[in-house]
Structure formats: C-alpha cells, structure tokens
Write a structure and sequence with these properties.
The chain is of the alpha/beta class. It has one domain: 3-Layer(aba) Sandwich (Rossmann fold). The protein has a four-stranded parallel beta sheet. The chain starts with 9 loop residues before the first strand and ends with a helix. The N terminus is likely disordered.
Length: about 140
C-alpha cells in the first residue's frame, strides 16, 4: 500500500473523467489514466467513489462505448467526510480528496465543488489542465517510444 505521506501529488478523478477516458484514447482524460498507470501521478478513491465508478462503468450503455476494461486503475481507499456540497452525489469525490490529501480534484464540473474545495485547499482542475501542468503527454510519449 502506498504511503500517502511519501507521495506529494494525489488526484481524485470524478466519474465523468473515468467515463471519458474509457470512451476515447484521444483526450486529456485518457492521458490522466495512463499517467496513473505509469506512476506519473497517484489517483485516490474512496469506497463510495469506487462503488459509483463500478455502477456507472458497468452499465450496458457505457460498456458498449468503451475501448478497454476498467480494471487498469490504481487506487487508494479511504473513508467519508459529509456534508459539504449541495449535490450529495458529489460528496464522495470531495470525501476522497480530503481523506487522501489530494492535490486536486479533476472534473468537468468544477462549480459543483465550490466553495468546499477552497475551504479544504483542494485545487479544481479540468483534465487538460493537469495534463498540461505536469507535461503528461510528453512523459507518456517518452515512456512508450
């Protein structure tokens, strides 16, 4: 098990990022999953968020659009903080970020996590921002060439 004290950058990926990554290998969301797989960044997940991933990703309407199997994600498991947000469905993402001491939450829905993310000093990033900030596209190209 990863010692979170030794890892400086931990990120929580909202379910929409995982779904986008498994639908297309062309976007920033896919690059983030590849970066987790190659230990360039660390993903963090709570039990509740894991179960949401499982529920959403195993739907027939999703599976038929995916190019791969969702088992390729490294995870760290933690427990809950609540309530903090207006939408109870987003609480598990914030819980995971707080407990995992995440650097940021990567989501397409940044406004849903305000102001709580600011209160806990957790950045909110779009997937393309994280890919650019960490130069992940180039790092992955270097690994695979």
């Amino acid at each position: 098990m990863l010692n979170i004290q030794q890892q400086s950058k931990i990120y929580v990926l909202d379910t929409n990022i995982i779904t986008a990554a498994l639908r297309s290998r062309l976007g920033a969301s896919f690059l983030l999953l590849q970066s987790i797989r190659h230990d360039l960044i660390t993903g963090c997940i709570s039990p509740a968020l894991f179960f949401e991933y499982a529920d959403v990703l195993q739907r027939d309407t999703q599976l038929e659009k995916f190019w791969t199997d969702p088992d390729e994600i490294n995870i760290i498991i933690f427990y809950t903080w609540r309530p903090q947000l207006k939408d109870p469905n987003d609480e598990m993402v914030l819980d995971c970020a707080i407990n995992g001491k995440a650097q940021a939450i990567v989501t397409f829905n940044q406004k849903d996590f305000l102001p709580a993310a600011n209160h806990f000093q957790i950045q909110l990033l779009q997937p393309n921002q994280l890919v650019k900030n960490l130069n992940l596209k180039q790092k992955l190209e270097d690994l695979t060439s």
